Amino acid sequence: MIKFGKPLSMCLCLLAVWACVPKAAKEGDKETENRVEALLAKMTLQEKIGQMNQMNYSGNVEEIAGLIKEGKIGSLLNLTDPELVNKLHEIALKESRLKIPVLISRDVIHGYKTIFPIPLGQAATFNPEIVEQGARIAAVEASSDGIRWTFAPMVDLSRDPRWGRIAESFGEDPLMNAVMGEAMIRGFQGEKLSDPSAIAACAKHFVGYGAAEAGKDYNSTFIPERLLRNVYFPPFEAAAKAKCATFMVSFNDNDGVPSTGNSFILKDILRDEWKYDGMVVTDWASATEMIAHGFCKDRKQAAAIAVNAGVNMEMVSGAFIESLEALVDEKKVSITTIDDAVRNILRLKFRLGLFENPYVATPQAVKYTEVHLEKAKETAEQSAILLKNADNVLPLSEKVRTIAVVGPMADAPHDQLGTWCFDGEKNQTQTPLNALRKLYGDKIRVIYEPGLMYSRDNNKAAFHKAIAAARQADVVVAFVGEESILSGEAHSLADLSLRGAQSDLITALAQTGKPLVTVVMAGRPLTIGKEVDESAAVLYMFHPGTMGGPAIADLLFGKAVPSGKTPVTFPKMVGQVPVYYAHNRTGRAPTGEETLIDNIPLEAGQTSLGCTSFHMDAGFGPLFPFGYGLSYTAFAYSNLKLSAAKLNTRDTLTVRFELANTGKYTGVEIVQLYVRDHVGSVTRPVKELKGFQRVSLEPGEHKTLIFTLPIENLAFWNRDMKKVVEPGDFTLWVGTNSEEGLSADFEVIE
Questions:
Q1: Per residue in 553-609, pLDDT tens?
Q2: What is this enzyme's class at the first EC digit (predicted)?
Q3: Which residue in the list 156, 253, 283, 457 is annotated as catalytic?
Q4: Domains within the chain, CATH numbers bracketed
Q5: Are 369 and 78 in contact, with CB atoms under 8 Å apart?
Q6: What pTM value is reported for the model?
């Protein structure tokens, strides 16, 4: 039986998570520290260095077993056979000198066997509780195979959809990344790390990885300290305060210093400021990749720089185990530094309960259970974003007797799972085509003609079949998007349009005159303005996972009502990137109407367009703003009231307003709270998300809703690099997305 966390209070998301005070130390911490010190005192230098070595499982059991006996492996990657896991644990506990268990690790990013929507899709739910539940399910399934450490959540702020790893992120907003990251940590780690179904989480990638130049993976970043502190650090600080068991450094260099060798972020910030006592691991071979960066001359120097910077364990590249003994002898690395690293590793293993019971009970019937599949379906439903619904074509009515299902993503069981799901099984995937036939095939006729075989397919030979199917149908549902291989690590793009002949397929289907519903399944926001214009309705899903098919089927027919919101801004064209809602204000912000390139008169005056900050071919704004998403029903906001017009920095502002469901369907509205600081010692964003709530209303129902905003949550790192709330004028908005809503002003005084 899985225990889910207690329901979140309505205003949980409002809290600035990273500002919370850590919980008091538990009584067991002192005992754990005593055990760590006692074991550390018995270890030779070689055994200490062995704990700092993480190896990838190669399949050579004899070699791995021998190294475990010698105490030369601290952690083992990518072993998923529970019987072999038990065998290796037995070797460690019975045949090694110090009987230190090996930590088994694996990438479990958005599900283990039961695959949930990719993290970007989970962010679209604006529901931390369901994210926590998904991570709990992933932990239960993964731990049943002996996995006790995973490399998630990824809380890299991602404002560039060209970057393939935006799929793994929670989007562009610091608060969203903090809240969702903390929820995923709670889910993975459970109530106690020593629970056999708990797995250690890993906050990654520390730090700035999502700001890679040109959206190219592994590329350099230049993020000044103030921007790090105001935007990129907060999700990681939230993870540290949430007792995330481990941190992973990022591949990138920032301002010329690779994160793997950056003592400012690993010592000054993580250890000294945030008082973090967890373990820090490199990313895959990122220690020795500092040689390719031109930051280290050889593997030995890379080991010295990484360990001295604050890294505790090296993932796979082996420079620590081959070089650290000599580096200690040469006094280039101190034994104190080694001991501190090993303390962090041993502490984690004790907290996980591995010394008491590292073994796995086999077999365990916990994968693909009914509860797991139902929760994956619910998450997929909540992740769906309705971008357009002209003439209320959705939900499909009983008058629809025949639908044409077309497009390469209608029956793509592998690609529907999305990126980074090594253990997902496509034969368990329920696709939209199969779900429509199974759930609604007794009521409607389903004609399936894909038109294209996969998302990059340029062969239009089967278009005529898809068009013929459309002409027979009452409505056409086109499933387009990206194969899973087109997003994720090392899968960056310079062009964000639909691949292959998918756009041409949408045009051909639209020309039949039949109502066209376009369902997009992708790993990132795509530039789909043309396709949106040609479609009657557009439903966007970031790769929805195992149960995406039944979720989509029920959404199309109104058994479920869309509630998802965009967790990242959708650009009109790639040249707008980076485009995000919380940009700083400029001295030449657009005002009035935009004049686009095709409307500029010949020989127009050089200043006739107004000399403001915009693209002449894209205009002022994005295709869809952050926080955008429609419903089958309608919501009305009214009667916004603030508890005070003037407050000091110790006060809490109470925000009240009315929300009514004015439509015909029961629906969930994601209410969002934004704030603007009008004048600061440094320029401030036009808006910042400070809270959100999921509110369910019946038709005709209305509720009085409340946000509480502690004024201390308006603090930022100022010109003197101090975190303060500066007195002055503020505006807040409550509304349905980052561009619409009711507003009110207030003042913060000394």
A1: 999 999 999 999 999 999 999 999 999 999 999 999 988 888 999 999 999 999 999
A2: hydrolase
A3: 283
A4: 51-106+198-206+237-360 (3.20.20.300), 384-557 (3.40.50.1700), 635-748 (2.60.40.10)
A5: no
A6: 0.96
